[in-house]
Every structure is written in C-alpha cells, then in structure tokens.
Amino acid sequence: MELIDRYLALVGFGETGWGALLLSASAMTLGVSVCGFLTGTLLGSVVTFMKLSRYIVLRWLADGYTTVLRGVPDLLVIYLFYFGGSAFLGSLGGLFGYEGFIGMPAFLTGTLALGVVSAAYQSEVFRGAFKSVAGGELEAASAVGMRPWPKFRRIVAPLVLRYAIPGLGNTWQLVLKESALISITGLVELLRQSQIAAGSTRRPFEFYLTAIVLYLVITWASSIAFRHLEARTMRGTRSSL
C-alpha cells in the first residue's frame, strides 16, 4: 500500500504531483495527432485523385510520393520539416534585416510531418475504397444525368468513406504513435513530459508506465469512436453471412 500511495502522490494532482502536466501533455499529443491526421486526409485525397487520374504523369507522381514517404523513416521527415522550415524562416527574416535563428514552430512541424507521412497511407486506403465501390452505382448516377460534383458528394464520397473507415482507423493509430517523435522538436507532448518528469524526480519507471497507460486510454477511446463511426456508415446495408 505504501508503494501505491507513493505512486499516486507522484502522478496525482497534489502539490508534488505531475498529474495536471501529464494530462495537459496528453491533450497536446491528441491535438497534434488530430491536426496531422486531418492534414493527411486532405493531402491523401488529392494524391488519391492523382492515382485515379487518366493522366500517366499524375499517376507516376502520386506513386512516387507514396513510395518515398512510406520508405523513408518518419524521423527524417520531421527533421526535414523542422530544419528546412527554420532555414526558410531565417531566409525570410533576413529580407527584413533579422540575422538570428528562427525556429520552426514545433506544433506546426508535427502537424505537417505527420500529415505528409499519413497522406501516403491514407491515399492507398482511399484508392482501395474507391475500387470497392460497385461500378453499377456510378453508372446509374451518370445515367440519370447527375453532374460530377453532385455525384461525388451524394454517391462516391459516402461509399468511399464507408469502405475506408477501417483502414483510416489503422492509419490513425500509426499517427498517434508517431506523434511521440515530435518531442525531438521541443513540443511538450506526452512522451516529452514523461521524460522531463522522469529526469526531475529520477523515477523513470513510474512516469513511463503512466505514459503507456495514457497512450492506451487514447487508443482505446479512438477504437470505440471508429467502430461507432463504421457502424453508422454501414447502417441500412445488409451484412453478408
């Protein structure tokens, strides 16, 4: 019991507890993950249109994008965005007479890096979902004279989303785990806060164990949300036995 009391005092919300900081860092992890995932969704949609284009150059560019981003370590992508963005901001500041170092904002770096990487995976999810849409449904929409945008909004997008949700759930889990890498830019997310607390108290086991639990809680809640969303999109369809 004494060991448990000491642990609760360490990660609790008392005067010497780190609970509030850990929860704040968890919110930061969730925030950068959501922003990165949504950025990847937008970019991944564009890449998907390129993959499905009738122009071979666009298909080559999209295939090259997904091949490179899925083959390069995510940490390198974060470094490129951070140092490349900082160099760009430094050059921009030099135009106005500023000669110091201008660091790329850590949250923006994480959002862009996670978005660019996840877009490579999400584009494959969307492409596979589009291929699963029955051609007869698209032909029926064209047969009644439906224009391209209404057909996309009413027919294509809902059906693609229905088939894509399971894959998007897996991609979200990857983004959530990769968000821990953003700590190298100084963003105080869950892993970084755990490192700070462990270094300050010299009790690494307790804080890293707590970080594991918090990551699992976020993952568990996310899984429930995606299952609920999948059930809603499948409403009205007949399940095959």
TrEMBL record:
Key word Signal present: no
Subcellular location: Cell inner membrane; Cell membrane
Membrane topology: Multi-pass membrane protein
Pfam families referenced in this protein's UniProt entry, alphabetically: BPD_transp_1
Keyword Zinc-finger among record annotations: no
PROSITE patterns for the chain: ABC_TM1
Domain named ABC transmembrane type-1: residues: 26-226
Similarity field: Belongs to the binding-protein-dependent transport system permease family. HisMQ subfamily.
Full protein name: Octopine ABC transporter, permease protein
Source species of the chain: Sinorhizobium sojae CCBAU 05684
Phylogenetic lineage: Bacteria, Pseudomonadati, Pseudomonadota, Alphaproteobacteria, Hyphomicrobiales
